[in-house]
């Protein structure tokens, strides 16, 4: 056990050197790391949002809305198909996640089944003998739809955040329908929440001028929508009757920019060729009629068409503030979300608290380190000092591993390091106590040290693996800062086993060979 | 020069002889914890309870809590608690979840900020956790703890005999209960960090237990004719110095953290300090004596290859530099 082959010594030294290399960028300023050549480790430890300040948002894609919309479209499609074939039906609507209707003539069941299956999209059609029909999407189709909606949402979220110019955001999918957004350096996320909270579905539609909003008989092809501006009491200023049919939608926009018109903030936009043509056609046919610009179910403005708009460019003028115009332009450029987002969790840490936490954590770590070092030196003398060397090596390896793996260091993570400092000497205490015991059994120093290391080994492994189990489960189930704790605890356990066993053994063996002592100092 | 020289290598405390006392104490502690939990409950933080939490630093050097209370009461936000946090100029505000979804929470935060603007210098922390997430986090915490205990017991079963796994598991459950009791008694905030603390305590305690179990196994293999209490005492005593020293260094490190590590992780650190003490006690005073009651005898132990090999080595006197 004390005969350490040269290659092993070389390997131990190599691991330590690699640790130093990866840990060293943390000693210089962040700007200075840019000057380190690429082939050298040049990354610093990644600080979590609780240490560097920033905002964490957990969002959920409200996919129910997508499913609902899909069913509404299905109902429309069924209506078109049945009317086209002149098949009589009644009570067409949505019920329990399916489109349902009743055939006036149940003998047409087979024709209807075929007709609706042809709509496509993995439909399951069943028509009962009494003519009651229900049409639903297959589960796989629904799942796919949800999955696509979440994927698309992530893309839109990314574009919106990029447009605001936040540096180094992370956007990750979590589970089936959730998205985690991390925004370093953002200590007031209200604007961000507002921007992410809007679906931003823009439509241009004609105003139904035949009925007044107060009328109780709104035609089925129209709906009453509130205006965007509100009275001080929080109720909409006006209501508009707007046709459901969409002339052009936000998908046809190629650009949107905030600008000014007669001193008022407005948003100018351009359509793509398809949108421009459609818009031109509609405006040509509806001169002197009003059309509505609708955003997320609210009418931003309802201007009257004075002349056909042929160029594919236009301006949205509403009751905007400068910020409002900026945000709307941003939302239109980034595109609409397929479904609304709900904020489930928000954690924001200001830069002051982050810096304070780093300072407190650093101070506590150094203090703990010094205290443990003194304790070990006093208790075990020379052997204690050798264990202290291993302890410092351990700390360097933890820093190196955190930098190299680019794991995130959080405040509980610092606690994990401090805890590891206390626990790391455990392996050495185990070994030293064993050596003391073996020396007590009338063994010579060499034999006692050898037996001490050998016997303590299995104990150290068993004891550390059980703790490692806890760390792994913490990592798996923990979130955010707690994950950071699990990471440093696990890294610390592994590195401490290496330093406490391999490094001290190298030191103790070297000392024994040089001095050839008659008795051990412990 | 090394102080350890003055510590006997094999102390001779009759710890296992006190087993009725130590086990009785553990049972009492566990029961008391359950009662405290039932009567007092835990002071759940925003993580599990849901709602809004804000940490603010005031412009005044000492925060006027009464003024805060007056200002916030006018907003009708439901259940609001206001307390000083760490420094005299730092205040922690807990607000219950507002009815009306995401916008209502954002609006409440905005209103609080508008009201406090005159007295607040900076908003250090703002957290909002929806009730659904809070419930999920709670379940994940319970699941993680249960799984961790089970996984550790299985590992011990695999490495030792089943009696060791049962004794270790009971000691772990005792530690978890005692920690929950500690949080119920002190009403320190129970949050995600606390769950991490509980799991760490479990990991630390089992680490301690395994070290002693390892020695129990070794002693039983070596001295097949001795009586159980004597064997267990030998094992506990020969690891006692290590048990005390390791708890000592860990506690030193944790106390440094508790005092200087900042208010945010203070309840986490105190939980760990309590847990290290309880975990150390349960390894010696509960897990080891339980082995006796579970019927572990030298004859039930398999003669591991290890001991035979070691015996052979010892005979040959093989050990060299």
In short:
With 522 residues, chain A is of the alpha+beta class. Chain A has helices spanning 6-23, 49-52, 63-84, 109-117, 139-164, 190-197, 273-285, 322-334, 351-405, 411-440, 445-477, 481-515, and strands at 46-47, 54-61, 89-95, 98-103, 123-127, 132-137, 170-174, 178-184, 202-206, 222-226, 239-243, 248-249, 253-261, 264-271, 291-295, 298-301, 313-316, 341-349, 408-409.
Structure overview:
The complex is a heterodimer of chains A (522) and B (321). Chain A is an alpha+beta fold. Chain A has three domains: 6-53 and 351-515, Multidrug efflux transporter AcrB transmembrane domain (Multidrug efflux transporter AcrB transmembrane fold), CATH 1.20.1640.10; 63-142, Hypothetical Protein, Haloacid Dehalogenase-like Hydrolase, Chain: A, domain 2; 203-321, Gyrase A, domain 2 (2-Layer Sandwich), CATH 3.30.1360.200. In chain A, 51% of the residues lie in helices and 20% in strands. In chain A, strand 5 and strand 6 form a beta hairpin. Chain A is elongated, with a radius of gyration of 35 Å. Chain B folds into two domains: 13-42 and 134-306, Multidrug efflux transporter AcrB transmembrane domain (Multidrug efflux transporter AcrB transmembrane fold); 51-129, Alpha-Beta Plaits. Chain B has ten helices and six strands, in the order H-E-H-E-H-E-E-H-E-H-H-E-H-H-H-H. The two termini of chain B are 26 Å apart. Chains A and B meet through helix 6, strand 18, helix 9, helix 10 and helix 11 of A and helix 4, strand 5, helix 5, helix 7 and helix 8 of B.
């Amino acid at each position: 056990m004390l005969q350490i082959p040269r290659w092993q010594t070389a390997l131990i030294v190599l691991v330590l050197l690699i640790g130093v290399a990866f840990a060293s960028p943390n000693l210089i300023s962040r700007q200075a790391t840019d000057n380190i050549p690429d082939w050298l480790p040049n990354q610093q430890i990644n600080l979590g949002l609780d240490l560097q300040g920033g905002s964490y948002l957990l969002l959920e894609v409200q996919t129910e809305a997508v499913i609902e919309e899909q069913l509404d479209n299905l109902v429309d499609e069924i209506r078109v198909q049945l009317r086209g074939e002149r098949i009589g039906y009644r009570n067409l609507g949505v019920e329990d996640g399916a489109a349902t209707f009743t055939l006036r003539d149940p003998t047409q069941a087979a024709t209807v089944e075929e007709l609706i299956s042809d709509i496509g999209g993995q439909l399951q059609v069943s028509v009962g003998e009494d003519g009651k029909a229900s049409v639903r999407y297959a589960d796989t189709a629904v799942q796919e739809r949800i999955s696509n909606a979440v994927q698309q949402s992530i893309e839109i979220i990314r574009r919106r955040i990029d447009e605001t110019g936040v540096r180094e955001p992370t956007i990750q999918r979590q589970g089936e329908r959730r998205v985690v957004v991390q925004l370093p350096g953002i200590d007031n996320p209200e604007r961000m929440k507002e921007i992410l909270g809007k679906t931003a579905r823009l439509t241009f539609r004609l105003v139904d001028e035949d009925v007044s909003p107060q009328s109780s008989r709104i035609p089925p092809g129209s709906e009453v929508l509130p205006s965007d501006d509100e009275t001080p009491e929080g109720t909409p200023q006006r209501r508009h009757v707007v046709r459901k049919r969409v002339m052009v939608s936000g998908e046809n926009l190629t650009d949107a920019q905030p600008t000014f018109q007669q001193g008022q903030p407005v948003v100018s936009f351009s359509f793509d060729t398809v949108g421009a043509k459609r818009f031109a056609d509609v405006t040509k046919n509806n001169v002197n009629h009003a059309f509505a610009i609708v955003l997320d179910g609210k009418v931003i403005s309802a201007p009257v068409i004075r002349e056909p708009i042929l160029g594919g460019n236009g301006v949205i003028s509403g009751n905007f503030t400068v910020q409002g115009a900026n945000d709307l332009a941003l939302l239109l450029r980034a595109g609409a979300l397929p479904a609304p987002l709900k904020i489930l969790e928000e954690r924001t840490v200001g830069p002051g608290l982050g810096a304070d936490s780093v300072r407190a954590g650093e101070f506590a770590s150094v203090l703990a380190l010094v205290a443990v070092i003194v304790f070990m030196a006093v208790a075990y003398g020379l052997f204690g000092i050798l264990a202290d060397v291993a302890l410092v090596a351990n700390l360097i390896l933890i820093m190196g591993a955190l930098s190299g793996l680019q794991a995130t260091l959080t405040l509980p993570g610092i606690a994990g390091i401090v805890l590891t400092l206390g626990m790391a000497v455990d392996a050495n205490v185990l070994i030293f106590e064993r050596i003391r015991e073996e020396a007590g059994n009338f063994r010579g120093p060499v034999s006692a040290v050898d037996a001490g290391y050998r016997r303590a080994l299995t104990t150290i492994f068993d004891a550390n693996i059980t703790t490692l189990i806890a760390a792994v489960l913490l990592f798996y189930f923990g979130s955010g800062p707690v994950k950071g704790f699990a990471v440093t605890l696990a890294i610390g356990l592994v590195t401490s086993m290496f330093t406490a066993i391999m490094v001290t053994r190298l030191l103790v063996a070297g000392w024994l060979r040089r001095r050839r002592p008659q008795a051990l100092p412990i | 020069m090394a102080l350890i020289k003055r510590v006997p290598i094999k102390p001779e405390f009759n710890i296992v002889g006190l087993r009725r006392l130590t086990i009785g104490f553990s049972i009492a502690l566990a029961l008391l914890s359950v009662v405290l939990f039932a009567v007092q409950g835990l002071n759940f933080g925003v993580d599990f309870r849901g709602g809004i939490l804000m940490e603010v630093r005031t412009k005044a050097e000492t925060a006027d809590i009464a003024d805060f209370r007056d200002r916030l009461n006018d907003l009708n936000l439901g259940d609001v608690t206001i307390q000083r946090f760490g420094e005299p100029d730092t205040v922690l505000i807990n607000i219950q979840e507002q009815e009306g979804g995401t916008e209502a929470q954002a609006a409440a935060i905005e209103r609080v900020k508008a009201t406090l603007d005159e007295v607040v210098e900076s908003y250090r922390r703002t957290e909002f956790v929806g009730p659904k997430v809070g419930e999920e986090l709670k379940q994940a915490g319970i699941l993680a703890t249960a799984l961790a205990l089970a996984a550790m017991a299985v590992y011990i079963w695999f490495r030792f005999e089943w009696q060791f796994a049962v004794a270790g598991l009971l000691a772990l459950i005792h530690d978890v209960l005692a920690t929950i009791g500690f949080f119920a008694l002190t009403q320190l905030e129970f949050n995600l960090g606390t769950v991490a603390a509980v799991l760490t305590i479990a990991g630390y305690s089992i680490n301690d237990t395994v070290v002693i179990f390892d020695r129990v196994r070794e002693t039983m293999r070596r001295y097949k004719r001795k009586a159980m209490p004597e064997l267990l005492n030998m094992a506990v005593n020969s690891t006692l110095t290590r048990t005390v020293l390791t708890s000592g260094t860990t506690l030193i490190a944790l106390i440094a953290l508790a005092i200087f590590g900042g208010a945010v992780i203070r309840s986490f650190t105190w939980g760990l300090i309590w847990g290290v003490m309880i975990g150390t006690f349960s390894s010696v005073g509960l897990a080891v004596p339980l082995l006796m009651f579970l019927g572990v005898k030298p004859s039930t132990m398999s003669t591991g290859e290890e001991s035979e090999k070691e015996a052979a080595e010892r005979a040959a006197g093989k050990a060299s530099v």
